[in-house]
UniProtKB/TrEMBL annotation:
GO terms for biological process: 'de novo' CTP biosynthetic process; UDP biosynthetic process. Belongs to the UMP kinase family. The keyword Transferase applies. InterPro entries: AceGlu_kinase-like_sf (IPR036393), Asp/Glu/Uridylate_kinase (IPR001048), Uridylate_kinase (IPR011817), Uridylate_kinase_bac (IPR015963). Keywords: Allosteric enzyme, ATP-binding, Cytoplasm, Kinase, Nucleotide-binding, Pyrimidine biosynthesis, Transferase. The gene is pyrH. Residues 21-26 are annotated as: Involved in allosteric activation by GTP. GO terms for molecular function: ATP binding; UMP kinase activity. PANTHER family: URIDYLATE KINASE (PTHR42833), URIDYLATE KINASE PUMPKIN, CHLOROPLASTIC (PTHR42833:SF4). Coiled coil: none annotated. It comes from Aerococcus urinaehominis. It catalyses: UMP + ATP = UDP + ADP. Its EC number is 2.7.4.22. This is Uridylate kinase. Catalyzes the reversible phosphorylation of UMP to UDP.
C-alpha cells in the first residue's frame, strides 16, 4: 500500500440512480464503467470493499404501491431490481480485472451466491469486492438499511453514502434554499432529530445503535470515492455521540 487509506474495510452504498447516469432510469454503461474504474483505484490501495447496490433506477416498491399493488409484492420486485444492477456492476468490475462476488439476500443460486456473512468476510480478506444484492431480503426495508445492516455484520469501518450531485448534508435543500448550509460533521441523532435527508430513519437508527460512521459525499465528482477513503474531508461525516 503506497498511500495510507483511512479505512480498511468499507461499505459503499450505491443507489440505483447512480448507475443511470443522470436519467434516473435504467443502466448507463458509461457511468457504470466510470464507477468501476474509481472502485479499482480504491481496490488498488488495498481497501476491502463491499457494495450495497440499490434498485430505484429500475423499480421502487412505492411506485407499485401507488399503482395499487400490494406493498410486499412491489418490494420484492425492487429487491430483484437490485440483483440486476449487481450483476451489471460485477461485469464491469471483472472486465477491468477486479475480482468480485455477488451475494444475494434472496437465493438465486444460478446467478450468485446466497448471502453468507462469514463467506463475505473471507472474500473481503482475499481482496475480492463483494456486492450485496437483494437488500435485506425483506419487504418494507430499503437498501440504505441493508447497507447499515451489512456494515454492522461485517464490522466495516465506515459506510460511504454516495450521492448524485449533492456533496454532503445541508440544513435545507441547497437547490431550493440559497441560505442552506453544509454540515461537515453531524451525529446520527442530529440526522434523526433534525429530519435531515440522508438515509431513512430505520437505516439511521441502525447506524446509530451500532455506532457505524457514515460519510456522505458526491459521487459525480470523479475521484471522490478515493478521496473519501484517503480521509480527505470533502463531504459530511456522521458519527455517534461522543
Ligand atoms: N427493497 C426492499 N427491501 C430491502 C431493500 C430494497 O423491499 O431490504 C425494495 C424496495 O421496494 C425499494 C427497492 O427495493 O424501493 C429498491 O431499493 P432502494 O429504493 O433502496 O434503491 P435505491 O433508492 O438505493 O436505488
Amino acid at each position: 500500500m503506497s498511500v495510507e487509506a483511512k479505512y480498511k474495510r468499507v461499505v459503499l452504498k450505491l443507489s440505483g440512480e447512480a448507475l443511470s447516469g443522470g436519467s434516473g432510469f435504467g443502466i448507463n454503461p458509461d457511468k457504470m464503467k466510470a464507477i468501476a474504474k474509481e472502485l479499482k483505484e480504491v481496490h488498488d490501495l488495498g481497501v476491502q470493499i463491499a457494495i450495497v447496490v440499490g434498485g430505484g433506477n429500475i423499480w421502487r416498491g412505492h411506485t407499485g404501491e401507488e399503482m395499487g399493488m400490494e406493498r410486499a409484492q412491489a418490494d420484492y420486485m425492487g429487491m430483484l431490481a437490485t440483483i440486476m444492477n449487481a450483476l451489471g456492476l460485477q461485469d464491469v468490475l471483472e472486465n477491468i480485472g477486479v475480482p468480485t462476488r455477488v451475494q444475494t439476500a434472496i437465493e438465486m443460486r444460478e446467478v450468485a451466491e446466497p448471502y453468507i456473512r462469514r463467506k463475505a468476510e473471507r472474500h473481503l480478506e482475499k481482496d475480492r469486492v463483494v456486492i450485496f444484492a437483494g437488500g435485506t431480503g425483506n419487504p418494507y426495508f430499503s437498501t440504505d438499511t441493508a447497507a447499515a445492516l451489512r456494515a454492522a455484520e461485517i464490522d466495516a469501518d465506515v459506510i460511504l453514502m454516495a450521492k448524485n450531485g449533492v456533496d454532503g448534508v445541508y440544513s435545507a435543500d441547497p437547490q431550493k434554499d440559497a441560505s442552506a448550509e453544509k454540515y461537515s460533521d453531524l451525529t446520527h441523532l442530529d440526522i434523526i432529530s433534525k429530519g435531515l435527508q440522508v438515509m431513512d430513519t430505520t437505516a439511521s437508527s441502525l447506524s446509530m445503535d451500532n455506532d457505524i460512521p457514515l460519510v456522505v459525499f458526491d459521487l459525480n465528482q470523479p475521484g471522490n470515492i478515493r478521496r473519501v477513503v484517503l480521509g480527505e474531508e470533502i463531504g459530511t461525516t456522521i458519527r455517534g455521540e461522543e
